[in-house]
Specification:
- This protein has helices at about 20-25, 45-55, 70-80, 100-105, 155-160, 175-180, 190-200, 235-245, 250-270, 275-290, 305-310, 315-325; strands spanning about 5-10, 35-40, 60-65, 85-90, 95, 115-125, 130-140, 145-150, 170-175, 210-225.
- By secondary structure, the protein is an alpha/beta fold.
- Strands 1, 2, 3, 4, 5, 6, 7, 8, 9 and 10 form a ten-stranded mixed sheet that branches.
- Residues about 135-140, about 225-230 and about 300-310 have low confidence and may be disordered.
């Protein structure tokens, strides 16, 4: 039997209330040359039973059942078994328009190494008591005009529209993923999609990327009403660790993005506890100090004054960093 053109991977964890809508929207596609891989990530509700029912009634659906390992682990499991020439993703609490896959493949895929769509954002406000209220204006559309670009220049465009992550807006070549061992980093649940995209785009320098100009993915964005004082510092540290380790493999534009993102994570640390905050701040400047100026954006390069300030007591150093944030 011929392999499908596209493999759609859907990680699922305790999604019994939304997974049917997501799966049904994919089964209603106007494009038929695809397989759907449902990865049950240790759900404790009826999600697995729902997935098995779909698998029994649809030849192009297969189910993977694994112990809970997080969204990165679930996506990796799906990619490992994917048979399609191309891979994309869908989250179990989102849904897609009937032309979602057709919009990826409409103009042919042979000339491109990455195909990108836009999205529609549905805002949902989630109260502390668990009740949800959908806003009266159901969605906004984030759209990038149709065009063909070289991969070396697409990161800036994606950043400008705030969709550099969002793996479900992108169609990836399976062969590129496997040849370069590109994967989601298990244990990383903060910006894990951006880390994946940085690695992928770094591997396709000089190749063509198609922006379809269409928006057919419906992203449910939850605004959670919480009073937590601190962000989860472990998430920041894990993301930063991957950026540091993978930095030498990135192309020039990806390195610029990586340092920008690293710096943004450092600014997020102002919501962390003091000791964690100081560690992230100093680690950032040590990281920059280790890099050659050729690979570091001008605004982040350390001069002699900056290097001396690294040695100052924590409180003085923190004031310096805050002033740097204002300057940048």
């Amino acid at each position: 039997m011929k392999n499908p053109l596209i493999s759609v991977i859907m990680p699922i964890y305790n999604a019994e209330s939304t997974v049917s809508r997501a799966v049904d929207s994919i089964l209603q596609q106007t494009f038929s040359d695809f397989e759907l891989i449902l990865v049950n990530d240790g759900s404790t509700d009826s999600s697995l039973e729902i997935c098995r029912t779909y698998e029994a009634n649809n030849r192009n659906i297969k189910v993977i059942d694994q112990l809970n390992g997080g969204v990165s682990s679930a996506r990796n499991a799906g990619m490992a078994t994917a048979c399609g020439d191309w891979i994309t993703f869908c989250d179990s609490d989102d849904f897609v328009d009937p032309a979602w896959l057709e919009n990826f493949a409409r103009d042919g895929v042979d000339d491109y190494s990455l195909i990108v769509q836009s999205l529609k954002i549905h805002r949902i406000f989630k109260c502390e008591n668990g009740e949800t209220e959908k806003w009266s204006e159901s969605f906004d559309t984030v759209r990038i005009d149709r065009g063909i670009y070289f991969a070396d220049h697409v990161i800036g465009l994606l950043r400008k529209k705030y969709i550099f992550g969002f793996v479900y807006l992108k169609l990836y070549k399976t062969e590129i993923i496997r040849r370069n061992n590109i994967h989601f980093h298990s244990g990383v649940t903060f910006r894990e999609d951006e880390l994946f995209n940085i690695e992928y785009i770094s591997m396709i320098s000089g190749q063509k990327v198609l922006f379809t100009g269409t928006a057919s993915y419906n992203y449910n964005y939850e605004l959670v009403d919480v009073n937590n004082k601190y962000v989860l510092t472990d998430y920041l540290f894990k993301t930063v660790q991957v950026l540091r380790e993978k930095y030498p493999t990135y192309n020039l534009e990806a390195r610029t993005y990586a340092i920008d993102r690293y710096f943004e994570l450092v600014t997020d640390s102002f919501r962390c506890k003091y000791n964690s905050k100081m560690k992230l701040l100093k680690d950032f400047h040590v990281f920059i100090k280790e890099k050659s100026n050729d690979s570091v954006p001008t605004e982040y390069r350390l001069n002699k004054l900056s290097q001396r300030i690294l040695k100052l007591p924590g409180g003085v150093y923190l004031v310096y960093i805050m002033l740097s944030l204002i300057r940048l």
